[in-house]
Structures are given as C-alpha cells and as structure tokens.
Design a protein that fits this description.
Layout lengths: L1 H34 L1 H21 L3 E5 L10 E5 L4 H10 L5 E6 L9 H7 L3 E3 L4 H18 L2 E4 L17 H9 L4 E8 L17 E6 L3 E2 L5 H14 L4
Parallel strand pairs: 1-7, 2-5, 2-6, 3-4, 3-5
Antiparallel strand pairs: 6-7, 6-8
Helix pairs in contact: 1-2, 1-4, 2-3, 5-6
Length: 244
Amino acid sequence: MQKIISYPISFIAILLFLLTLVIFHPIQWICFNVFEYQAHKKSVDYLNLFLVRIGHVTLNTFKIEGRATIPTGVPIIFVANHQGMYDIIGMIWFLRKFHPKFVSKTELGKGIPSVSYNLRHGGSVLIDRKDPKQAIPVIKGLSEYIEKNKRSAVIFPEGTRSKTGKPKEFAQSGLKILCKYAPSAYVVPITINNSWKFFRYGAFPYGLGNHITFTIHKPLAVNNYSFEEISEKTENAIVQGIKL
C-alpha cells in the first residue's frame, strides 16, 4: 500500500527536486562569478535547505545528534557510511558551519544542474575511481586546502552507497592522505541511518516516512593517534552506530 501511495507523492517530489536544481544553477553561477566564494557557499547552503524540505514532502524527517562536539577553528575530516543522496544533502545543510567539501566521483562533475557546478567550483574534488594514481594528488590538494582554510572534507570510505544499510568494506587510502597532509585536523566519524530507505524501491518511487539520522561520534585529533588507530576507531564508531 505504501508503495502505491508513494507514486504520486514521488512524482511531485521529483518535479520539485529538478525544478530546484535548475533554478539554483544560474543563482550559483552569479554568486560565484560576481560575488565569489562566500556568496556561492550561501547559495549552495540554501539549495540544500530546499532539497531537505523536498525530503519532507515524502514524509521523511532528519535529525543530527552530537553536532556540538565538533571542534571549531580547526580543519575537520568527516568520515561517514554512505547510504544515499540525502547523506550529502543533509551534511551540506546541517554541517554548513564547517564548509564541507566532498571527495566525489568524476562522473558527478558534469551534466547535473547545480550539483555538478558546485562540485567543480565549490572546493570539492573529483576522482576517477578507475585510476587510483590520479586520486592521490587530488585528495592531497583537498587536504592542504582544509589545513590552510580551517574547513572540512567529507569522505565516504565505502566508495559507493549501501542499498540495504549494511556497511561495505572501508577503504583506507583516501583517509590516510587526508590525515597526512592535514596534520592539525580532527577526524569526526558520522553514522548515517535510514537514508537507504529513501530508495528502498529503487530509483522510483521513493520510500516514505523514513527517519534519517546523522550521529556525530567523538572527534579524534590526527596528531594524537597513529593512522592505524584513527582508522580502527573511526570504522568501529561508524559501524557500531548503524541500525539495521
């Protein structure tokens, strides 16, 4: 029954979603080219606020826990499990204070209104997952960027989203580079729950009435631990917080 009800609601949500992306694309362009970084960031923040509100159309709710524990005035490396597109939308909006920049696959850098423009111009980086050597200098550049500007990087070490909520194997290479070249950073593990249910039926229709949560775990100062300790503590915190 829920799936049947979801069809008309999802159709409305998709129209609103696409319309929002199209409207904000020229807004981003103007903000970036005329008013530069801060204005562009504001436009991206409000784009994602609108997208969160569209999530409410499908009766989904969002909650972030532990945000007050995130250090300020230092570089941050957010590490999270990956379940769906609302992982990114929620993190951009709820963590906007920390200027989150993403390590994303190169395919997303073209063809998607607003999204591709922000990935190319907003400070995020694009990597070719088929060419690991290309990723090393790109992620190194992001590390140096957050170290210099006291901003944040977001990495999903699973690489691709889980379609069932069950975590996939965590890769260490990207996080290792970020830690190496942003030595004053704090690694902040985040567990995301239930965003996979938004796509429980596939691309269409959307799942209704999901309670999507972002749980912030204890920050880890890069300088206080070996990378092996950071990797183990981060993965354990994230995985133990996942509710299936």
